[in-house]
Design goal:
about 290 residues; mainly alpha
């Protein structure tokens, strides 16, 4: 089991890095380029993993509807994140995105009519105050924080991830999740790549320095490997035990963003982030 935990640690480290890598790419590339090229690089690797493990990739006609809905939502999810990182820090992104499990609980209550208890409500309230602290940076008297576009977009992306999970939940239970991921990413990749072909030239990419190229390759290759590692961890440890490792994702983002991007890590960031994680923990504890 030690090797499985190492894989999960590598997974959350990679996911923490993806926000930093996206921030680096945004200095040279548009959001749709980052999303499209990331998937264009990662999909062949994902396909090879699926073929090597001999996972079934066939779907019924009715299942394609869920795949199409999931594709639209996941495309919006990654575009929101890429656009948001133009306006906010990778550090804030790492902490705010941590509310995804709470967004899942709230949307499951609204859409699926699943029960939500007082413990979950308390956790949501604690995390909400932490998010307000992160976005406002402690300046509650000023309403300027209400227009913090990047932070709000990241918060929206946490909800699109929850929507995606709900939309593809039955599929992921009956089919291999990696196969589902492959099929929902294909339309997003095709759409972004067509737009890139129509709007960008080869010279544009030939003149790119090494930093965004390395960052983009890491998004495609490492991001795909992280998906695989995560599925292995969930299969071996279960979703609940594997989910504990997600608490480390914002920590790794901060550890990388401060030295590599020169971002600041203040007491308010620590307090707000801690409240977000505390709210998630409280809502999910048994």
């Amino acid at each position: 089991m030690t090797s499985i935990r190492v894989l999960l640690l590598i997974c959350v480290f990679i996911w923490g890095w993806t926000f930093v890598a996206t921030k680096i790419c945004l200095e040279y590339l548009d959001p749709y380029e980052i999303v499209g090229l990331r998937f264009f690089i990662g999909l062949p690797l994902l396909f090879l993993v699926i073929k090597k493990k001999k996972y079934e990739i066939g779907f019924s006609r009715t299942e394609y509807r869920s795949l199409a809905i999931g594709s639209v939502i996941i495309g919006l999810h990654f575009m929101l994140q890429a656009v948001a990182l133009n306006y906010t820090s990778a550090t804030n992104t790492g902490w705010i995105i941590g509310v995804s499990p709470l967004a899942m609980a709230g949307l499951s209550f609204l859409i699926l009519k699943e029960r939500i208890g007082s413990q979950e409500i308390a956790g949501i309230l604690i995390a909400t105050f932490g998010i307000i602290l992160l976005i406002s940076r402690g300046e509650f008297s000023s309403l300027g924080w209400l227009t913090s576009v990047g932070d709000w977009l990241i918060l929206a992306s946490a909800h699109t991830w929850a929507l995606y999970t709900i939309a593809t939940r039955n599929l992921s239970r009956s089919r291999n999740p990696l196969a589902v991921t492959l099929f929902v990413f294909v339309p997003v990749t095709v759409g972004c790549m067509l737009y890139i072909l129509l709007t960008k030239s080869i010279q544009h990419y030939a003149s790119l320095p090494s930093e965004p190229i390395i960052a983009l390759l890491s998004l495609g290759v490492l991001g795909t490997l992280a998906q695989w590692f995560w599925q292995i961890g969930v299969a071996k440890l279960g979703a609940a035990r594997a989910g504990i490792f997600l608490y480390l994702e914002p920590v790794t983002t901060t550890m990388l963003a401060v030295p590599l991007l020169g971002e600041s890590f203040t007491l308010l960031t620590a307090l707000g982030g801690s409240m977000v994680m505390a709210g998630v923990w409280w809502a999910q504890r048994k």
